[in-house]
Design goal:
By secondary structure, this protein is of the alpha/beta class. The protein is 44% helix and 20% strand. A ten-stranded mixed beta sheet has the order 4-2-5-16-15-6-7-14-12-13, sandwiched between helices. A hairpin with an 8-residue loop joins strand 9 and strand 10. The N and C termini lie close together (9 Å). Bound molecules: NADP nicotinamide-adenine-dinucleotide phosphate and magnesium ion.
Amino acid sequence: MDKIKVSTPIVEIDGDEMTRIMWKMVKDKLLFPYLDMELEYYDLHVSKRDETDDRITHDAAEAIKKHKVGVKCATITPDRKRVEEYNLKQMWKSPNGTIRAMLDGTIFRSPILVDNVKPAVKSWTKPIAIGRHAYGDVYKNVEMRIPGPGKAEIVFTPDNGGETRRMVVQQFDGPGILQGIHNLDSSITSFAQACFTYAYDRKIDQWFSTKDTISKTYDARFREIFAHEYEENWKGKFEEAGLTYFFTLIDDAVARVMKDTGGFLWACKNYDGDVMSDMVASAFGSLAMMTSVLVSPHGYFEYEAAHGTVQKHYYKHQAGEKTSTNSMALIFAWTGCLKKRGELDNTPDVVEFAKKLEESAVETIESGIMTGDMTRIAEPKPESHAGTEEFIDAIAAKLNTKL
Ligand code: NAP
Ligand code: MG
């Protein structure tokens, strides 16, 4: 068989521990035999980051800016223990945080569904994707303990010497607490653009929710910016594609989501997204069945798994014990990346290959071959679980029948 040509380089970002082991297996067994592709490789192994004083992480993000599409393995975010374990010069920042800041993106998470795992919410038959705003609000707050009676105010002093604005938050009679939060029109606009891009790309409806009945200025600003962005840039396209944009109150959205069938993007403010993405992931089954993509308003895309490096399994692997680690989210990071590359390059055979690989992976699980995390939640429950490599081999066998 002739290999399928991927015409533009893909930025490949390697990582740590068990995901690094699986990363190589996925490439060797599911990609290289079928694809002729040029990879611009960045090794973000924690020791490499240390060796380069984290230069390599910045280089990887720059490469995504250049080539537009990248795929990333999970990486260790060092804490004190890791500094000791790998003898690091310092506690390097989270690579995901660094890359996100450089690409200015929004993260979207979406579960992979299989027939033999039923979501905890019975009505969910299609994936629910969550788009979480990743700037401001309580994550960039200032707060203080109030020791006793006194007046708390918010004050805005314009740079251009205009009139200072001042509002009383509370006249305290006794001890209490106080918090100041903010957001930026530019960041909310980027977030809205990324959400509409993602939903339109996948041809799914979009929901957005805030608490604008209570927060008539702050949350209402989110609603206004989304509405403006929709009216100006997306309404025509959405209507033509038969898609809807739906705004509602956060509590109404939560109530509706429990009765809905799924199949939409739920755009969430920072805190809502933090909480709701964990709820949705857990209701759909396993962390290893959750994909993640960073979409930047400048047209850059970075695909990854939502889970970490699966440290405990790695230690077992190192000790020579058999592991059963699920490679689904890593495989879907690659297929997501290939589909996007194929779409941008206008090479439908690359997109077609990625879809066949996704089908093969899903059908493998549906045929009863799955890793330990899945046997715990699958119905019917298989008699045994597949090893890490065995599972990938089974997918390769299925893929071979489709090509
Ligand atoms: P984790 O790697 O996501 O794993 C937590 C647990 O979830 C595992 O012990 C395992 O449970 C289960 N699990 C996750 N992925 C699985 C898979 N593919 N197959 C089977 N089971 C899976 O989180 P962590 O242990 O808290 O973090 C480990 C390292 O990952 C940390 O150094 C952290 O900094 C890093 N991390 C990186 C990213 C990223 O790069 N995107 C994200 C999060 C964390 P059982 O042990 O019960 O089998
Ligand atoms: Mg959370």
